[in-house]
Fold these 2 entries.
Entry 1:
Amino acid sequence: MILVLQPDVDESFLERVRKELMALGCTFSLSRGDEQVIVALGGNFDPDAVYAAAAAWPAVDALNLRSDRYYRNERRKRRFMSWLIIGFGLLTIAALAFPVLNFLRPPDNKLELTGPVRVGSVTGFAEGTARRLRIHGDTVMVVRDHAGRFRAVSGDCTHLDPCQLDWNLERQQLLCPCHGGVFDILGNVVDGPANAPLLRFETAVVKDTLFVNRRR
């Protein structure tokens, strides 16, 4: 877009025009001739706003060298590119920050823990009984046989979907209520559809206190 002014235009008026155009986002380039003064406009501006401003200036003609649609499309493209650059910048920052934040995040309760766990006094276990416990996130059946020895095996059936086992006091065996599986106190399969033994855990008695360690 260009503005055409009279050759004898006052300098103070030109300064006023320049300031108003800059406020509208225009760059200002002036060329003087014998018959007229030409002001070439550039930058990211709204042609409608320039037309409105020029209408208030005496003896100023505003000529659009390109269509208003062209300038509007240019503004849309520039805005789109600006948001695209900002979006890529945010994604880059997130990609760089995620590993750092993940490293700094405190561990959750699902981490594998090791080491013996204090279960309690051996006097709390009658001979021939069993107790279901949680050891480092695992379901564990702790059994005390009639000889006073402790056994610890997984409390989940090994057939298809895990199902918690029940202790049968009369049979002295672990029974699966879901699949009908039967296991002895050592975790061996006695009957039923399961074909894998139960996972075993280590047990130890220290000063009348029972400890169960991580699975073997």
Note: The chain has two domains: 2-65, 117-215.
Entry 2:
Amino acid sequence: MDLNGKVLLELGSGVGFFLRSFYHELPEDCLYIAVDRNLERHRFLKKALERTSSKSNILFICADFLHIPLRDYSVDVVIDQAGTSNYSFEHKEFLLHELDTLFKPGSYLLGSFIAFKNFSTKSKIEAEFKDNFRAGKVKENIKSLEYIPLDEELQNISTGAEGTRTSLSKGKRYIHIHFSAKGGVNPIFFDFQPKNLRDLLIDIRFTRQLKLIA
């Protein structure tokens, strides 16, 4: 996918594990918007990027996800590396549904979502929030937004891996799913392979079907 002139939005950029892995590959005329509600993480990431030789356009927004000051239908690529999952620890709503008006028709989604095959009796996740941690439900929610899947791959998580805000025991799984544009268009160019499986349990790539906006 050609990212020239595109707007990329990362939900929950943290200290930049994802962004720093391909920062040098961003075109100079694209805009990468990093959203996180932790100001200190933004400061850390900004300093880290300033030490590189690349000069990509990064906009740091410190805000809650539901109060991102962007125009409707302004985002070409959505990067959700457990941002939705972190939100789901305290909310029943699926975050991408809540932010859907920000995403353009034909937009791409590159996401990783925490999911459990089974919940422990000692799970810290409240019963009312568990649906957003079930792989089938996550995929159902994403497809309802008109993103198109291609394939998926199941793999075991290494022993001792930890998830965001809660511990995962061995035997849990993550789902790696690739998505491409309808009609045989090449998939998004990112070749992101998680090096640390703490919070990358479902790695999903999607593209959205074009639709008219009234």
Note: The chain has a mean pLDDT of 74.
